[in-house]
Amino acid sequence: MHTELVVSESTLLAFALVVSRILGIFVFIPMPVNEAGPSVARIAIALASTIALYPRWPSIQAQGIGLGTLCIWLLAEIGLGTAIGLMVSFISESITFGARILALQAGYGYASVVDPTTQADSDVLPVLAQLTAGLLFFTTGLHRYIIAAFAASLDSFPPSSFTLSRHLATTVIQLGSNVFVVGLRLASPVIALLLMVDIAMALLGRVSTQLHLSHHAFSIKMLIALIALATVFAVVPSLYESFSSETFRQIQATFGR
Q: Nearest-CA neighbor of 200 among 219, 220, 185, 215?
């Protein structure tokens, strides 16, 4: 005797709301993949995560729900997921921002490579920092914390119960301002060293006019910056982990109860 697979309207509605929330998260997750694959990879991981969290799906009565109400619910779920995704993406963007400042000061902005995430020419140091941040994201186990935070948000704010508020926007903006703080903390030692090198070469050129240091200033600064970067990148994991801990404390305080 053949059996038919019957999926109720309530289950489909719950699936649509949950997957809308988790897709908003995975849009901004730093994944070290190229442009040809992120859409497929992100959608596949989002669907797999949604199905894995099936026991936490809410029970929603689909009767009497209009199109307007459904659109409002979907927008709220996408907004919640986007907020969590943005807060997580700030961790990687802080490292990339610091690398962009260093590339400008050290002279590495003249060299470009193909960015594997956008397939466009980009500076060497930002691409290296972006790939490093993507690897640190999985090495430090932040992907597990995201799934746990998403599961906790389903308990704290079941689908169809969350509303966008000014407090949420303020929290995201305040956390986003830390991108500049972390980036400057990463770049400040090298920038200060390069400034001292510029001052030293200027004084030497002033004392001895026969030394034509201006012809070698560019290569000297790049070499010194490369040596300094080897030291700075050694502390990147600890700085990354510190900022990620603060970010997930904010996520827990905002979406946890």
A: 220
Give the tokens for residue 211.
């030394």
Q: pTM for the complete prediction?
A: 0.75
Domain spans of the chain, in order of start = 9-255
- φ/ψ region of 73 (left if φ > 0, alpha if ψ in -120 to 50, else beta) reads alpha
Distance of CA 125 to the CA centre of its chain: 17
Collapsed DSSP state (helix, strand, coil) of residue 247:
helix
Q: What is the dihedral of CA 232, 234, 238, 243, to 10 degrees?
A: 40
| CA–CA distance, 11 with 54 (Å, rounded to integer) | 10
In sequence order, which ranges of the chain are alpha helices (DSSP H)?
A: 9-26, 38-52, 67-106, 124-139, 142-156, 166-207, 217-232, 236-255
Per-residue pLDDT for the chain (257 aa), expressed as one digit of tens each? 455 555 677 777 878 888 888 887 877 776 655 444 446 777 787 788 888 888 777 777 767 677 787 788 888 888 888 888 888 888 888 888 888 887 777 766 665 555 555 555 566 777 778 888 888 888 888 888 888 888 888 878 877 777 778 888 888 888 888 888 888 888 888 888 888 877 877 777 777 666 666 666 677 777 777 787 778 777 888 888 888 888 888 888 877 65
C-alpha 31: how far from chain center: 9
Q: What angle do CA 257, 241, 195 make, to 5 degrees?
A: 135
Strands 121-123 and 112-114: antiparallel
